[in-house]
Records
---
Amino acid sequence: MADGFVINDTTYAGEAAGQFIVKAITGADTIKGGHCYVKDGIKKKFTIPRWDADYEDLIQDRAATPTSKGTMTVTGQTIVPADYMIYVEFNPRDFEDHWYATQLNPTLIDRALPVSVESVVVQEVMKRHTKFFNKIIWQGNTALTTIYKYFNGWVTRASASSSTNKVASPTTLSASNIQDEFLKGYNKIPEALRYDDDMKYFCSYGTYDFYATSQIAQTYKGIDTTQSGVKLFKGKKVIPIADFPADTYIIAKGLPDMGSNLWVGMNSVDDASLQLQKVQNNSELYFIKMLMKADVNFGWDEEIVYYGA
């Protein structure tokens, strides 16, 4: 395959599965775009290290024997990866009328999958998982009973936290009000971060479409109708995210390194595994099984701006 990864009729676990699953995870819009930091290798729980001090409080007059001045605060946010899985069975005979039919074993007694079919099936399942993962890291909620119940996503955490900077009186967003509502969020950005280029607006495709339409509709300095819109608001990148909730946006520092305020935690080597093999010896059915463990959190709630109900 193009990525050089070949799946054979065997059990993949440990490092090999970890590399494959991480590759699939990093295909998610949010992570692939470099908007969050993925912390791998979390055995059970990880504390996001936070160090803080008032820079003005540390300064004092020079003295021969100085007295300590200033306070350094060390705190942390925890990431506790939660379990979920994928398990699906299929019959290789389904490929008999497919263009892969010529690659199947001619003997029906042992109609094993050819390597190319195995690779395609696994990769397509992982692509669907990528879409699920991109949604749960934003909209996950442990109060739900659906498949999005495994951990709290960033939207859920931002809404529930008493420390995030919430925009008052959120409303239904539209092309006519989006710029005013974006400005309310901008004004909520902590002063120290207001001119940080890594602070980004995260919103739904629909919300971004409103923003692009509003740029075209401006009486003066509007953009050409052939353009898709400028993905900037007052110098901050506007990032449309698939399956992001409507009438909601988050402003956060999003980076692919530890300087990010958006963190994803997992343990691909020990807690994630991928299997593709026969259901049992006397069966023609195959199964794909993937065990996964993940969680998300903010580094600093105080540095998040939340707009939504």
---
Amino acid sequence: MTTTVPLTLPVIDPMENLDNWDATGTWGPDGTSPYAGSFSLADSPVDNYPVSTNTQILTAVNLTGSTWPVLTFWDRYAFADNGDWAYVEVSTNGSSWTRVYSATFTRMTWARQQIDLSPWKTATNLRIRFSVWTNNVNFDEGWYIDDVEVSRRP
């Protein structure tokens, strides 16, 4: 997707809904165990993810004028095997992507992630996507994301 309208800094999304995101697959709010608030976003809310899928949520942010932008979010995940992955990627054009975070296997406790976006500090439309790739063997709960923020480094 290349037409996502960029949000302005600071971006603070409690991940209660998909209002700031373009989604593929079954992404949606999940209230079973959010980090904060009533919901987190999950690739397979209230169910296990299917095998052989590639789904994502995508947004964009205008980083113009920032000197040290940082993407912060909380996540937890349960993937059946090392053929199932979660990725965060960024793109300035919607076609070439740079992977900035990945996760596999299982970590069911919430953990805070911080990703330095300063290499893209002049981007007027930096796309940010959270993707889940699964193989065709096993399935599990998937990826939960909460309290996403893009702001200037404190």
---
Amino acid sequence: MKEMLLPKKLEPFLRKNKRFKVVFGGRGSAKSMTIADLLLMKALQEGAKVGCFREFQMSIEDSIHSLLSAEIERLELPGFTVQGNSIFHENGAEFKFKGLARNPESVKSAHGFKYFFTDEAQTISFESLKNLTPTLREDGSELWFAANLRSMADPFSQRFFVPFEKELRANGYYEDDLHIIIWINYDSNPMFPDVLDQERKHDEKTLSKALYRHIWLGEPYDEVEGSIIPVEWFDATIDSHEKLGFKGSGAIITAFDPSDEGGDTKGLAIRHGSVFTDMK
């Protein structure tokens, strides 16, 4: 068995037990590979059953089955048997694979599992997320998620990013009794390959700032195609009064946009002259 390497930033996944373990970030951050390796170790050490999910899985090729199989071979892990749509270990551990979108409630029949791992979790629906959580009831069981955020309005972002955004933006890390949430990118991956870095540098020069940050830095991507005000223009106004050396003056105005029906959220903005002091 070969030595397993993992980014230092993801060590809390190995050392701490939490109900929810969430990692998100951009391309080249080693999210899926690291989690695959850690779950293979859990299978070896604990004989654990692992449910591997994606929202959309038309066939086994759409799952992480091939990644797990490749890592078993690369790390020379003993005792595993790889079959067409499942992976077993001689100690009783097993990996099962399922798509959630066609029948979100089908996961309720998954009993005896200790770990659930949802890859590409940014696509998960509210219904699927709702059904995953109460199904896993073993003592010490954990739900693992790996994602590259899409919109702030997505169910995944609403559950695991928006409530903890301040801490995640400040530290790239959030932890409480229930959660470990880690924001990781290519610059925290010691195995980040040069060929990907060449692609990253090209994208940095040629893509919009918002799209580059989404692909490589794991930022949510809410830019509307053809919008009058690009995200980078909006971002440039943040704290511009401090950069330009002026303060708010005149009337303090509060605007409130209620939401009576549907999925829209309410909005609140407070400004002092041309300086916005709060926005929700």
---
Amino acid sequence: GGSYPSENATIYSINIQSQGNTVVFGDLTQAREGTAGVSSKTRAVFGGGGNFGAPDYNILDYVEFATSANALDFGDLNYTARETQGTSNETRGVIAGGYFSPSNSNSDTMDYITIASVGNATDFGNLTTTWREGHRGIISNGSRGIFGSGVTPSFINNIDFITIATTGNASDFGDLLNAGRQHGGACSTTRGVFAGEDLSPSGGTNTIQYITIASTGNAIDFGDMSVVGGQHAGGSSHVRGVFAGGTTPSSPYAINTIEFITIATTGNSQDFGDINEKLAYAGAASNCHGGLS
């Protein structure tokens, strides 16, 4: 999914351990932007999403990583929103927050699903701040899930954590280096990385920052991306984080670049390849993120 110039249904794939351009995988059941991606080693689920006009959705779609094909219906979230975010371990996916239109309000809701079975989501708890959208997940060490930044409606630098196997409200983890939204997220089993940042309408940053997932504390500088902006789709293996697409503060706004980092080190990102089109607000998932053994 994603947007620019209009909402998109296409699913693209890459091989994280190599470099190169995206390959078409299939289509979502509904064209939309701002979906959350959660995954196990075999299956990816994309939740929520919407259009900049209307409507927004509570859709849950899924695909099997091993087979390129169109997504299938998984069930529904308990709430309707776009710019939701997700974190997962091998068993469970948690989808949190988002933005509702036309009411122009945000959510602190968290829902969870069991990735291996289809069905509707169940309430998990709440984020530490209300009115939250544009935060970033996709960071987990298998036990803990991390969400960072967002809009409340002011930009914030909060980092929250949950224990994925339980239910309950999120707890405070620490702070990001800047208040903003729409970082790209990636992780290994030990370290979580946030890349880029949207500071609309004042632009963005190209900062990459990291945390140690098992502890609590503020983020630390990692390096820089080559582009200034946010709305990157983030994915990872145990070794490498990949950040795809996004927006920049000036025309033509949406970009098709893909960059990567080696998570265990620090330093600037490197060129990975390109998406087949310019794309922002896309959801991402991988079959070997930090929360999977």
